[in-house]
Design a protein that fits this description.
The protein has 98 residues and is mainly alpha-helical. It has helices at 11-18, 24-54, 58-70, 75-87, 93-97.
Amino acid sequence: MQWYGHPDELDAPLQAVLGGRWSPETIRAEFVLNSQERRARDQINACLIDCEKKRDWTPLRVMLDEVITGFPERRSRFELMRFAILLGSMGEESEGYA
């Protein structure tokens, strides 16, 4: 059995093994996707800080569009992030609600 994760989260994988539903490929793919999502969020946050300093939101808009397109499985999460940034940092309520 292969498993990627924290020991506190072992119950569900162990039950999957015992129930014959264990798929290492699926678990690995989910782990990789989660890592990529965290990295994308970190990059967005770094870009947000830079854009706030420069008061130029163009790079952040481009990055958000690229990330949303690049992560179709997590599209709603990144769209929610874009919504929060538009309303909060950018102050673009009309665009955010659109």
